[in-house]
Specification:
2 copies of one chain form a homodimer. By secondary structure, chain A is α+β, with helices and mostly antiparallel strands. The first copy, chain A, has one domain: 3-Layer(aba) Sandwich (oxygen-dependent coproporphyrinogen oxidase). In chain A, 43% of the residues lie in helices and 26% in strands. The first copy, chain A, contains 10 helices and 10 strands. In chain A, the strands form 2 sheets. In chain A, strands 1-2-3-4-5-6-9 form a 7-stranded antiparallel sheet. The first copy, chain A, has a two-stranded antiparallel sheet with strand order 7-8. In chain A, strand 5 and strand 6 form a beta hairpin. The first copy, chain A, is globular, with a radius of gyration of 19 Å. The relative contact order of chain A is 0.14.
């Protein structure tokens, strides 16, 4: 049976492999490395790149441990007979956000994570989702196909369930629009919630992690040689502001991290290199920008 | 005795007066006007400027009414014997955020507001605070003197109390720094909490509203002719990202508004024209930027 040490080690290696893959994809820059320790237990390694293809990107590994405490037990709505201060937790995973320089290339996010408590509670969570500045239906479909293939290898229900979950999660209520073209999102996967055992779920999570680089390569290679002008860059910058809004207002992980003394620079490595806000901006009718908004305002069934 | 109709009318006129004052200060642009209605009751008028001195600024008036409901009563922790669905509320006020083009000029924020319930509950709230991209102690002191004068005309305890309140409120815990050089912040002022009657408190709130333009004029006139270069603009853009972080992560009004179907464009008129994020950015030792961070990381008693 897989155990938490093996999971952590594999996540750490995944970070290395993904960084190597992304350096190859970028073709110009390499990742810096920031190792950090957490006073209460555990630590992490945050790796950041500022490249030619990836204007600003971060790939973060962490394995955080400590006393669970009342706030965590309450926030996570965990039912247990053990007192919160007698419970220890481990949270480990890899998180990625990449902001490409090319306005026709999409922003991408991935997270794979594992959580356990000393009372035997455990689960996996994670997801991958794509936020194009300009939605290209063919590329959105290709992305969803790659995710569906990874899911279908483990459980035929996963893709439809986790696609719907992503549509719900990556949604800016205050804008009434999706963050992007979605992807998959899943949380609290364990034997009870899925019927699959720990080894089976771990195999699924590993495959999601391994799907990341090839999936993003598909998107980058299809877009990075396309011509663009200042109109595209301006729109990219406006879309980046929506990414900021989602992460700071709605993303539960970001919020929880910032309000519980998490490592700020690692949490906010998801921020774009820059962003623009214009009061009540409306793209011209029938423009490519308006078409993208149309896609974002109406959740799509890509497959 | 002052009543809610007179308060609303005065706030609406304050918006007009402030916009006129700011157009004069800007010297190049005028405010646009967006009137809006709220389906559940009331509405507002959002006025936005993109000028030479004020790169992006908004002056918003609103007077929103409706059924209070359980969520509002709970959020505001109101003790009442009347059922939430039988209570009506009125919330009215003026909110301002101005982002100047010149990196040595400060961002400024003001809010004056009045809230009442149909059971007789009422209070005033508001504040003014200054967020310089570069802290100039002389100008911070001048700003606080202007606020102290306005407060002292009504109650000698107000300035020290409300200055401390602002230091607490306009604080980015996740950065361990203040949003700026502070100012004053106050909430739930009524006869019970202050010992002043409604007319007296209204006179105070009116004076705060009237202090805004002259106080900002002092800051702008002292800074707008100073030379600057790309280093200043770069730092301005980084500081603007902190302003975004405060408003989207910590500001209760913004959060409450976005999560309760408020008018998004009016709430987010506070966003800067653009902002920059750099992973783990550290200004050079002893630079003006480092000196500013020093001020922000250590709350000052300016007077």
């Amino acid at each position: 049976m897989i155990n938490s040490t093996l999971i952590q080690d594999w996540f750490k290696q995944l970070q290395t492999d993904i960084c190597t893959g992304l350096e190859d994809l970028d073709g110009s820059a390499s990742f810096g490395t920031d190792n950090w320790l957490r006073a209460e237990g555990g630590g992490g390694c945050t790796r950041v790149i500022n490249g030619q293809t990836i204007e600003k990107g971060g790939v973060a590994f962490s394995a955080v441990t400590g006393q669970a405490g009342e706030k965590m037990i309450k926030t996570l709505q965990i039912e247990t007979n053990i007192a919160p201060e007698e419970l220890n937790f481990l949270a480990t995973g890899v998180s990625i956000v990449l902001h490409p320089r090319h306005p026709l290339s999409p922003i991408i996010h991935m997270n794979v994570r594992y959580f356990e408590l000393s009372d035997g509670t455990w689960w996996f969570g994670g997801g991958i989702d794509l936020s194009p500045h300009y939605v290209d239906a063919t590329l959105a479909i290709r992305f969803h196909q790659q995710l569906k293939e990874a899911c279908d290898a483990h459980n035929a229900d996963f893709y439809p369930q986790f696609k719907t979950w992503a549509d719900k999660y990556f949604y800016l209520s205050h804008r009434q629009e999706s963050r992007g073209v979605g992807g998959i999102f899943f949380d609290r996967l364990n034997d009870k919630t899925t019927g699959l055992d720990k080894n089976q779920l771990w195999a699924f999570v590993k495959q999601i992690g391994q799907t990341f680089v090839p999936a993003y390569r598909t998107q980058i290679e299809a877009t990075r040689h396309l011509p663009f002008d200042d109109t595209h860059l301006h729109w990219q910058s406006l879309r980046r502001s929506r990414y900021v809004e989602f992460n700071l207002v709605w993303d539960r992980g970001t919020h929880f991290g910032l309000q519980t003394n998490g490592r700020t620079e690692s949490i906010l490595m998801s921020m774009p290199p820059q962003a623009t806000w214009i009061y009540d901006y409306q793209p011209a009718a029938d423009s490519p920008e308006a078409k993208t908004l149309d896609y974002l305002k109406n959740v799509q069934n890509w497959l």
